[in-house]
Amino acid sequence: MPEEKCPKCGKKKFIIDYDRGEIRCTDCGYLIVENVSPSDMPGWTTLITKQEKTPGRFSPVKRQNKDDRMIANTLSELDRVVAYLNLPEKVRESAASLYTRCIGENIIKNISRGRHTESIIAALIYCVCKEQKIKITFDKIIKAADADKEEAEETYKSIVCETK
Asked: Domains in the chain, ordered, with CATH?
């Protein structure tokens, strides 16, 4: 049986992506399980079934919808870019936390119209690197994320303005 809470942040909210075989924490973005098929996750299937039968015991585990897939895909891409740039784990964690905070406050929804995920990821990573005083150029992050420079810069400015 899997843990009933995230080993990183201790929260009990998960995104289950059956297509990718991943289970992530919705609060911090931590990848709890990866590269497994639903049949290889009997504990999680039980967890979902139990949660549906006895609300509150394992709440809130939820099946994946369109928004959940977008979050899971963004967090997965965030992991990839941070790893590619060889940045510390705290950058990934902080960027994932900033992303979920921006979602919770509808900041991402407001600024993401017409913007690509890559630009949002580049902006999030750059925000965190600046905050943590990690020396890396925005151009290097943009290139690693394969983002449009102008769009990433606009997204960065929007995130900075909206999160003050």
From this structure: 14-62 (no CATH), 66-162 (1.10.472.10)
Average pLDDT, the chain: 76
| pTM score of the predicted model | 0.61
Backbone angles phi, psi at 130, to 5 degrees: -65, -45
Distance CA 110, CA 44 (A): 33
Report the C-alpha gap between 151 and 114 in whole angstroms.
10
pLDDT tens-digit series, residues 76-89: 889 899 999 999 99
Nearby residues of 67 by Cβ (< 8 Å), 6 or more positions away: none
Is 32 or 146 the better-scoring residue by pLDDT? Answer: 146
Q: Give the Cα separation of 164 and 159 in Å (integer).
A: 9
